[in-house]
Amino acid sequence: MQKTLLTIVMAALCLNFSAHAQETTPNITALKIGDQVPDIIINNIINYKGLNGKCATTAKISDFKDKLLILDFWATWCGSCIKNFPEVDSLQRTFSTNVQFLLVNTKSTGDKKEKIERLFNDASRFDGKVINIPCIILDTLFDQLFIHQMIPHYAWIYKGKVVAITSAEEVTNANIRSALQNDTLNLKVKQDVLNFDPVKPLFVNGNGGSENIIYRSQISGEISGLAGINNIAKDKTGGITLYRKINTSKLHLYKLAYNATAINNNRIFIDRDTMNVVQKGIKDPYIFCYELISPPISMVRVRERLQFDLKEYFNLTAKLETKVLRCLIIRKDGGKIRDNKIVASSKNEVKNGLIPYKQILLPDLINQLNNALPVPVLAESDDPIPLNLNLPADLSNVSLLANALKKQGFTLITENRPVQVLILKPAI
Questions:
Q1: What are the strands of the beta sheet with 240-248, ordered from one edge?
Q2: HEC-encoded secondary structure of 182-195
Q3: Distance between CA 22 and CA 141 in Å, rounded?
Q4: Does this model's pTM top 0.90?
Q5: Which of 248, 372, 269 is nearest to 320 (CA)?
Q6: How large a percentage of the chain has pLDDT more than 70?
Q7: How distant is the alpha carbon of residue 339 from its chain centre?
Q8: How far apart are CA 135 and CA 50, in angstroms?
Q9: Which H or E run includes 154?
Q10: What are 143-192's pLDDT values in tens digits?
């Protein structure tokens, strides 16, 4: 009985419908606040009485020149849109003399006439309340004039101009009164991201608008044109909010993650093999970048996050262990006198298969040797005096290396020593 009565009432309120889509207006340009609204013809209106008080299915923008016209874009599948209808209807009744709400259901919503009529005929959707707001069906013009991505979407038109574009939160009694009194409207502008691609990552090439990242970790490929950079940003408390490593190898990322930057590649083992990375000749041809944006955290937490991300992407975990390895030991020979007459010429000048190294410190030499040789190189001396050496161009030539060191009072021997290594293995 209630539904039958409601249907009769709605029919009396001009629920007649023209099956023709809106006429196309040429040269349609999207409008912004302050723009003049063209006096377009509005077709396919239901529940509308024209200027003469009779049921009508068409109108013109100029028909509402003496009123604040608020366009309410909606769809039958938009729950928040429908939830607002009782409040919109109440505002329409309150400001019936000066305001006209006009519901706009665009053709792009996919809604059909029958579905819309069923919605308005279902009193249970509005707690038994009859909604007396005119509605445009199959709109194409306003959809182009007020481009939007999200609904509900409200366009406020007064005296022929766009005065506001808002979300539902701004459609209030107080804001409507301000608009009618020609007060300066300070309403929050609804700005939809119109070019969002749901299959692309957020913020890449502006996808999703300006960045508003609170937390993110990512691994990417090489960034051409940038050097290998390590960036760390901290807040006032010293907590790390940004950790970034640009253009580095996978192995170096693992060293950073496990606080093992002092571990040379000749002490990195994969899958518990007896051969290390250098012996295997492994050289990752790919370069990677890593970035973590986070609320303030400690370096320990940064490394934990990096470990997790590396495991997820490369399917490798790592662990620092002590392993007994065959090593090359540089030992100072107390009985030998350093040959100070060895003076290296210009660096990297190759002469007779030797490269001169001038004033090189022993720790720096050890590091270079560890980067070149498959076995760890250790020094039993902490000699602080810079060395002048003519080293073989091929540092892996141990006999030539031993001869060069001998001239400076050092011997090169082979011994098994316990050293710290980094072992990578497939994640379980």
A1: 216-221, 288-297, 240-248, 229-234
A2: CCCCCCCCCCCCCC
A3: 7
A4: no
A5: 269
A6: 88
A7: 60
A8: 13
A9: strand 153-158
A10: 999 999 899 999 999 999 999 999 999 999 999 999 999 767 889 999 88
